[in-house]
Design a protein that fits this description.
This protein folds into 3 domains: 133 residues, Immunoglobulins (Immunoglobulin-like, Sandwich), CATH 2.60.40; 82 residues, Immunoglobulin-like (Sandwich); 194 residues, Jelly Rolls, CATH 2.60.120.260. Helix content is 4%, strand content 40%. It is elongated, with a radius of gyration of 28 Å. The strands form 10 sheets. Strands 20, 22, 25, 27, 30 and 34 form a 6-stranded antiparallel sheet that branches. Strands 21-26-33-28-29 form a 5-stranded antiparallel sheet, with no helix packed on it. With 424 residues, the protein is mainly beta. The longest helix has 10 residues. The termini are far apart.
């Protein structure tokens, strides 16, 4: 009796059904006596019907493959690098098997001794073909320090930094193909920033490996020179080291603190036992304010800082360095902002979400502007942020808070507070 393929639809397999027409899957008979001989693999291709004549010799984890051959109807198992992929009879005919490479399949990145073969076992025998499995394309999850200049070391955190051959930087034909260093687990990448960066078309970096290229997003950006609020060097509406608001002493705005060296010029430093249970002192506060009401939040270029743009498209970013022998779990960076209606909007961000070491190295923290809230009140558009407080004063406060019950002694540096258009 014929079996209708629709009987095999279940959760997770519906996308495969859309491929069946392209592969010529039709109802099959139990009495056709197909596949009663040793299996034959002719080639392997992807599941796009427009590539019917193609053949692959490698694929990445997560790929769906079509094994093309003969005598495949009684397939019992498919192995890739001796790892069983699992076979669904609904997606098996005498000439085609559909299988997916899951993340558990060994690859040459994690095991250089893998056999690099795909093997099909049927009721009447087995056969194999050389086939290499690669990790997925690189994924950039964090740029350690986004405030970079040519000659600096760029460090990335992410996944699948295996077989990397090129790192692309902002600008036409600005890339690096040598001196790229990755760790054994494929989670870090280091490379020197090249000359001739050009941010006219964007400010993202990307990584290309034998598996493909990384996706550009707000996590892949470096600083393009726009949106600076406080670099602790350049006088404007805010003047350094004393005429910028209130909080820590102007004496703490300098080029070094114990265990922390400057990124570029001066930075704001805090050196204390941060009081537990959200205890307060002014020396852990950086309250940027223009008492005259003059605008010091970025407004140009207007296409980048459009007043009508949603706040979700903007991040507040700044560099943080911590020097301590104590755990910083429980240390928070609190951002505070008074809106035009007098509401105090704020958000607390764990410093350890961004700062991975406490040896004075600089890391970029990034906080989405829309995360500043007071109950259900938030800033909807960038114009709401530009408006400042109800008294006309523009303010933005950064406070290091200690949510634990005990004091935490540490030196904390903050530099380059800025607004970044992170999404267009």
């Amino acid at each position: 009796m014929k079996k209708n393929i629709i009987k095999y639809i279940y959760s997770g397999t519906v996308p495969f059904l859309l491929l069946l027409v392209g592969f010529g899957f039709v109802s099959c008979s139990e009495d056709d006596n197909q596949g009663m001989a040793a299996p034959i693999i002719e080639r392997i291709r992807n599941t796009d019907p427009t590539t019917a004549d193609s053949a692959f010799v490698s694929a990445t984890l997560g790929s769906t493959l079509a094994i093309i051959g003969n005598n495949l109807a009684t397939t019992q198992q498919v192995f890739l690098n001796d790892y069983p992929l699992g076979v669904n009879p609904a997606f098996t005919t005498n000439t085609t098997i559909l299988v997916q490479i899951n993340d558990s399949v060994p690859t040459v990145a994690t095991n250089p001794n893998v056999v690099n073969k795909i093997r099909v076992v049927t009721q009447y025998g087995e056969t194999s073909m050389d086939f290499q499995t690669l990790p997925p394309p690189p994924q950039i999850m964090q740029v350690k320090n986004q405030f970079l200049n040519s000659g600096d070391e760029l460090m990335l955190y992410g996944r699948y930094f295996y077989f990397v051959d090129t790192v692309y930087f902002p600008g036409e034909d600005v890339f690096v193909t040598s001196g790229i260093s990755t760790n054994s687990t494929g989670t870090t990448l280091r490379v020197t920033v090249p000359e001739n960066l050009d941010f006219s078309e964007g400010n993202s970096i990307s990584v290309v490996s034998r598996s493909g290229g990384s996706v550009v997003n707000r996590n892949t950006q470096i600083y393009d020179g726009l949106g600076m609020i406080a670099d602790f060097d350049t006088d404007g509406v805010l003047g350094w080291p004393w005429n910028w608001g209130w909080g820590l002493s102007g004496e703490m705005i300098r080029s070094e603190q114990p265990g922390i060296q400057s990124l570029d010029g001066n930075f704001a430093g805090m050196n204390q036992a941060f009081p537990g249970s959200f205890g307060w002192n002014n020396d852990k506060v950086l309250n940027l304010a223009a008492w005259s009401g003059e605008q010091f939040f970025p407004t140009a270029p207007t296409d980048r800082f459009s007043p009508g743009a949603a706040t979700s498209q903007f991040d507040i970013r700044f560099e943080v360095a911590v020097n301590t022998s104590e755990s910083i779990e429980g240390l928070l960076m609190q951002l505070w902002y008074p809106n035009a209606s007098g509401n105090e909007l704020q958000v607390n961000v764990p410093i350890s979400d961004f700062v991975r070491t406490t040896d004075g190295e600089w890391y970029t923290m990034s906080v989405n502007l829309s995360s500043l809230t007071s109950g259900n009140i938030r800033l909807n558009t960038y114009s709401n942020f530009l408006a400042g407080g109800g008294d006309g004063v523009k303010q933005l406060r950064l406070v290091v808070q200690n949510s634990t019950g005990s004091d935490i002694s540490a030196v904390v540096g903050i530099d380059n507070v800025r607004v970044v258009r992170a999404n267009f």
